[in-house]
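FAQ: What does the model actually see?

It sees only this:
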Amino acid sequence: MHCFKIAVRMSLALILLTAGPLFAGQQPSPASPKTRTLIDMRGKTVTFPADLKKVATIDDGFVEGVMTHLGVIHKVAAIGSWSLKREYRYEFQTASGETYVHQGLNTMKYLHPWLNDLPCFNSPQGNVLNFETLALAEPDLVIIREGDCTIREDGGEKNAQAIATIEGMGIPVVVIYTPGYFRKAELSSLKDEMAVIGDVFGQKEKAAALADYLSATEKMIRDRTAGILDADKTSVLYLGLNPDIRKKGAVGSVFGVNTPESFIIEHVVNAKNAFRGNGYGLPLSTEQIYALDPDVIVLPTSSGYHPPRELYEAPYFENLGELRAVKNRRVYAMPWSPMNCARRVEYPLDMLIIAKAAYPDRFSDIKVHAAALKFYQDVYGVDANAAAGLRTTQMLDWMTDHDF
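And it is asked to produce this:
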């Protein structure tokens, strides 16, 4: 979750100022048999080669996930996110001195290890784009997802400058927006994102079918939890355990009622967000968390993976031991998603975990560990072994251990 800064080396800037676009043949032009046009989520008409050979992406895995489903992932020639390259490792110690290690990958890196060999035109810190590296990849098109960690929705003028620089190089740019970009909690714009990506590759119907498949989980959960009275709703706290929060004197961070996280809790699962304020990733003290005392706690990716055992047994959380969710062992880890600033293709698994955690009786017939395998196979077209590997890389094997 880095600030988005723009840096263009002087040599490239000089080229742009004196010689015009680097790839004149890629300049947007009126549609012809060799070009296609679409309207992206900016409302801008974008013209690009009809036969796309090479695409560059600036996102954290969503675009690649949709491209995998469409069977065009091989067209990715350059990436703008190091989350598609890194191997992640996290560990914590219990109060008794035991050490637990957790390792994982971005789902797209797991499925497509060759992404690691592509040029990444961003700094390892994720805050400086290198346009020379992008230019050397010679992409036919750049797809940018504003609202991911790599290019945050609050980037404003910096984001606009980045887009203008790429377009000034003669490379067409298609922009899509995450739900967070609109400052709205609901998730409907995910379908719009998929529609644009489908349009890019001439597969609008297949992209629409993917959106319908993903939203079917949402409908199923809504149907099963409809009619629960307010007095009977389970209170759920989405609690980020970012270690940097602890260094600043708080215990964890929470998500307000105006966030996509709360939308899933309240408008899909029909539970109650234990935190009633607005805001995203707000730090809370021990006392403030006890004042909420939720029935259920879910642990998202928050500068690392955080299993329930960390909250139960790590010495720095001992003072939370009397929380109702902790005492009743109703703490659940969400799918691990590096650079998790916006929902990705796997978001139905988030919904299923929260739904079963909140209302186990209503979802007793659903084994989420098995549903996850079917999901990966349906969406990514992988076999059973690869599906199991995806579940492991999202650190969801705890579901199998507990028959969740």
